[in-house]
Amino acid sequence: MNSKLEAFVMHCGEMGSRWGFNRTIGQMCGLILISKNPLTANEISDALNISRGNVSMGIKELQAWRLIQVQHIPGDRKEYYAPAGDIWTLALRVFEERRKREVDPTLSLLRDNLLTEPSNDAELYALEQMQQIHDLLETITHWAAELPKMGPEKLNTLMRLGAGVGKVLDMKDKFLNSADK
């Protein structure tokens, strides 16, 4: 593996913890993503200089996240591993898994807490803050649920719009404010 490819794979390992899995699994994911051909567990082990057992555990984790898939080559008994979709599909899967692991439990806790009646002003304030957090997370969750329905082309367009959407909303506000005067 050349130094630029190795640097990318190592960076994926560092980013792994931010994506929700460990360094080795991040490296495995990065390696599989940039490999033109599907890789065997032994090839992954050799390329990353990690144990075959570590690769086996990493493969199970990446399969649980639905980021890799097994491929078979006719006449070959080995299992080969490849990305389970294009980059957009994989990104959406990471996003969805993180939502399930992080946002959903938080929403559940907030819903339970919001069912209680406050017994004093401090609790009332705390519940009001929790309600705002709940509402924000619900909005994000509903918006995120629409992302997979859009498809890669529309998602790419949406991402490119970026700050442009904010400018359009600012113009709308200026227009409405001037119309009120």
UniProtKB/TrEMBL annotation:
The protein, known as: HTH-type transcriptional regulator
Pfam family, one: MarR_2
Domain of life of the source: Bacteria
Keyword Transcription regulation: yes
Family: Belongs to the GbsR family.
Gene3D superfamilies xref list: Winged helix-like DNA-binding domain superfamily/Winged helix DNA-binding domain (1.10.10.10)
Transcription keyword on record: yes
Organism encoding this protein: Catenovulum agarivorans DS-2
Keyword terms of this UniProt record: DNA-binding, Transcription, Transcription regulation
MF annotations from Gene Ontology: DNA binding; DNA-binding transcription factor activity
InterPro entries per UniProt: ArsR-like_HTH, HTH-GbsR_regulator, HTH_MarR-typ, MJ1563, WH-like_DNA-bd_sf, WH_DNA-bd_sf
Domain HTH marR-type: from-to ranges: 28-78
